[in-house]
Amino acid sequence: MATPRISGKALRTVARLSGTRVGQMALFKVLRAELGIEALSALPERMRGPIPLHNRAVGGRPPRELEDRKLGPLVLPWSFTSASIADAYRRGVITPRELVERVLVSARGLEARRPSMGPFSEYAQEGALREADASTARWKAGRPAGELDGVPYAVKEETGVCGLPLRAGSAFLPRTPVEKDATIVDRLHRRGGIVVGLTSMTEFGMTPTGANPKRNMPRNPHATDRLAGGSSTGSGVAVATGLVPFALGGDGGGSIRIPSALTGVFGIKPTWGRMSRTGDYFGGTVAHVGPLASSTADLARVLEWASGHDDEDAETLSAPPIVPGQFTRAIGRGVRGLRIGVLESEWDDASPVVAKAGREALAALEKEGAELVKLDLELARHAPAIGYVVIAAEARAGMRGAWLENRQEMSDDLQVSFAALDAIGAVEYLETTRLRAGLRRELAAAFQDVDLLALPTTRDVAAQVSDQDMESGFMDAKVIDALCRFCFLGNLSGLPALSAPVGRDAAGLPVGLQLVGDAWDEATVLAASAHLERIGAARLERPGASVKLLEG
């Protein structure tokens, strides 16, 4: 049986126990059993590949060449998109200065709620208003910098923004302002985008729950007694509440797709190397950066605006050049002729409400001309266990200094997690990477026959959470595994993966459908997601905690 959720004094006791060798080994034994790690050693040799020497995504075949059918535009979400904001500026309905002021005031209003719904850990008020004034002048003169000029957006606090601190959800990293923008922020800034603040994340991104006692974390805007998911918690909430049309997030094991699914927005983890990580806090071989948005169209726009080669990030140099419009044109393709692989083992492991909503969305795509193909990938069900070992070992090694010097300043749940990770040996890590190579090989073979894979984003809807859980942090292996169960497949392979909101349960909690594409084929993933929007099978639902900043 799974261990119960632990928080408060009980968690503090376990954190102290984790400081002993006996306690460390006991904790690791429990976690490796509950998270499926124990089962990896028994998998046969035929499932393993060579120890990987690179992180590049392995494609089944070149990106698909599909006809742009120029299908009708998508239905606008209840809030706004970057395009609808630009249109409002063009028509003189509102100015960038006025909109940015509304965003900042509304964000503080959400923060003042109890429990808090505020998504920001830092505000960029002075710089945002200064840039908004400059944008207002450009629009007034009829010379905007482009469609992004004056559009407010948010950035997860793991990605550098000039003049703001880079603290990755921690309390002990210094508040020293970053001296330059991360590459992806710089590219959006050059197009006139305005950062209004940094969004709260879980501590060093080491939990997908959305709880972090070092921050005043927002709850789920659809139900304040539920988790919003993480680690890009604030980015999901900022979009879901209507504060911004898109936000930047980071994804090492589902941390873009999980909050997207739980808060009911769109989010994509692009192909490994598509977007530069220069200026991002995290490294390793599974951590990606990408956008969360109110529509598929804005996912496409951000990918076009912010992607591309970066000499400071060698991982981007293998990416094929982006042809202007290649992602935005995909919005009009539709799904006729697409072969969508359905992993039955994954759907069988989802809760009834998640499986029902996801299968109904797939049935809708089938009626639109897609072909559903049943698939079985032997290693898919083991992807989360492989992922836990890989991301945990890399994070623990990368944070060696912080662990040695600042352990007592970390939250209790993070202390417990890192203490248990010390028991992962080099041989186990390397043997696990061989299973990762086997998974990548299996996926490449699958994509020789299909264009997309469809699976749930999370096993269930957002879990309940108490005030004590949020204040002290908590350990709950069952909740963690339910959130990460289907996401590591994309991180371990480096393949693009998107979550689209395709339904709600009886209590109004969102359900996410995950679409995984072949290497460098974000266009096909975006085409399918956009068509779900077009036919009404995926949509942004307005939550109870929200603001309407732009009418019409």
Word description of this protein:
The chain is an alpha/beta fold. It has a single domain, classed as Amidase signature (AS) enzymes (Alpha-Beta Complex), CATH 3.90.1300. It is 38% helix and 12% strand. The chain is built from 19 helices and 13 strands. The chain has helices spanning 8-17, 21-34, 82-91, 96-111, 125-140, 183-190, 233-240, 257-263, 296-306, 344-348, 352-367, 383-398, 400-406, 412-421, 426-446, 467-472, 477-484, 488-493, 522-534; strands spanning 6-7, 120-123, 152-156, 194-199, 246-251, 266-269, 288-293, 339-343, 371-375, 452-456, 474-475, 497-504, 510-517. The protein has an eleven-stranded mixed sheet with strand order 2-4-3-5-7-6-12-13-10-8-9, with helices on both faces. A two-stranded antiparallel ribbon has the order 1-11. Helix 9 (296-306) runs antiparallel to helix 19. The longest helix has 21 residues, at 426-446. The chain starts with 5 loop residues before the first strand and ends in an 18-residue tail after the last helix. The model has no long low-confidence stretch (mean pLDDT 94).
Tell me the layout of helices and strands.
Elements: E1 6-7, H1 8-17, H2 21-34, H3 82-91, H4 96-111, E2 120-123, H5 125-140, E3 152-156, H6 183-190, E4 194-199, H7 233-240, E5 246-251, H8 257-263, E6 266-269, E7 288-293, H9 296-306, E8 339-343, H10 344-348, H11 352-367, E9 371-375, H12 383-398, H13 400-406, H14 412-421, H15 426-446, E10 452-456, H16 467-472, E11 474-475, H17 477-484, H18 488-493, E12 497-504, E13 510-517, H19 522-534
Parallel strand pairs: 3-4, 3-5, 8-9, 8-10
Antiparallel strand pairs: 1-11, 2-4, 5-7, 6-7, 6-12, 10-13, 12-13
Helix pairs in contact: 1-14, 2-14, 4-5, 9-19, 12-15
